[in-house]
Structure formats: structure tokens, C-alpha cells
Design brief:
14 strands
Length: 212
């Protein structure tokens, strides 16, 4: 286990070095967060970067009048991953962060876990043995996102919510007036997805889903 974590940290350090080498001079900032599966040991590796900014548990200024609020945590999952918290605690933590922002409505919520019932959090429902629940020959699916994240987005109405976590549930939706996005991923097939979002003083102008 020690060797496994050491290799994870080494790889993350290599990624941070690569990002600095490729992006230096571009004047394009990189804000990032870990995910719920990531061991805490990578936080030190993320902090070594002189270019990328780990915004987990922070509110950080962006160019212009925007700020980004970050969290790599999730509500509890069947896998008991390192960064899980009860939904009530999650909501309280996000509330405190949002209250420290200059204007939550000009804030981007960069939160790994998507809001509950948004359509960005639909996944197979598992039984106690972590097997998909099947009815009439079909795998049952349902919302598995965080009610704490949804409550925070409903209360503070950020400009944009950027999420991941549920890989098979990519797309876009609205939580109140907030546009929320989940690029989705197909890592097993080498497909990387993301969004390009145009933001103006008046709000979100457009959002494009891209892949490569």
C-alpha cells in the first residue's frame, strides 16, 4: 500500500511538472481539485505546482470579477472512498465557503460530486454486495449525487456548477438558475471529455461539450 501511494504521488508530481512546461507563458490559469477516490497523499503533490492551483476547500480569485469555490469531496458511496462526508456536513462546509465569497452569483462551483436529482448523477443502484439491482431483466438506475451540493447551489445560485464523479451521467442541466455540467468520461476507452464555457459580465453565453 505504501508503494502504491508513493507511485500515485510521483505520477501526480509528473503531471504538475508537465502542466507547467506545456502551459507556461500561455496566461491560461489551471484550477483543479482531487476526487473522492484520491488518497490524501496527493494533496502535497498538488501543492508543489508553481502553475496549477488546488482550490479544494477554498474560494480563489479568477481573472475578472469571478471566483471559484472548490471541493473534491462526495456524499457517502458504497466503496467508502477517502473523501466522503455525510450530506449534512457537506452542505454546511459548502455554505461556509459560499458565504466567504464576494458574490456567490459570480462564483463557479468546482465540486467533484454532482447535485442530487439533477440528471448528472444517474447511476446503477447497487445492493449490499455492490452488485447492480435488476428488475424484469433491466438494471435499475437512480440519482446518487449529493443533496448537500444541491442545497448549496439552490441557496447561493452560483453562475456555474462544474461536476464529475458519475462518469456515465455526462450532460448539462439546471439547478434553479444555475447551469450545471458533467462532462462524463470513458477512461476505459481513452476518451477524455470536457466543456468550453464562455462567460460574460451578463452570465453564461454558451457551453460546448468537447472530447478527444
Amino acid at each position: 500500500e505504501r508503494r502504491f501511494h508513493a507511485e500515485i504521488r510521483r505520477r501526480v508530481e509528473e503531471w504538475m511538472t508537465l502542466a507547467a512546461e506545456r502551459m507556461s507563458g500561455s496566461h491560461v490559469p489551471i484550477y483543479l481539485i482531487p476526487g473522492n477516490d484520491d488518497p490524501w497523499e496527493i494533496d502535497d503533490a498538488l501543492a508543489t505546482s508553481d502553475y496549477c492551483v488546488n482550490v479544494d476547500g477554498r474560494v480563489v480569485d479568477m481573472p475578472g470579477d469571478l471566483q471559484v469555490l472548490g471541493s473534491g469531496k462526495s456524499n457517502p458511496t458504497p466503496w467508502r472512498t477517502p473523501r466522503e462526508v455525510p450530506d449534512d456536513d457537506f452542505r454546511e462546509e459548502l455554505t461556509k465557503l459560499a458565504q466567504s465569497a464576494r458574490d456567490p452569483r459570480r462564483t463557479i462551483f468546482l465540486i467533484h460530486c454532482p447535485p442530487h436529482g439533477s440528471g448528472l448523477d444517474t447511476a446503477p443502484l447497487l445492493d449490499e454486495s455492490l452488485r447492480p439491482t435488476v428488475s424484469a431483466g433491466d438494471v435499475l438506475r437512480g440519482p446518487v449525487g449529493s443533496t448537500g451540493v444541491r442545497q448549496a447551489e439552490e441557496d447561493f445560485r452560483p453562475l456555474l456548477g462544474l461536476h464529475g464523479h458519475i462518469h456515465e451521467s455526462g450532460g448539462e442541466a439546471k439547478v434553479g438558475s444555475t447551469l450545471v455540467l458533467n462532462p462524463g468520461s470513458e477512461a476505459a476507452f481513452g476518451i477524455l471529455r470536457g466543456y468550453i464555457v464562455d462567460v460574460s459580465p451578463d452570465g453564461i453565453e454558451r457551453a460546448f461539450r468537447v472530447e478527444g
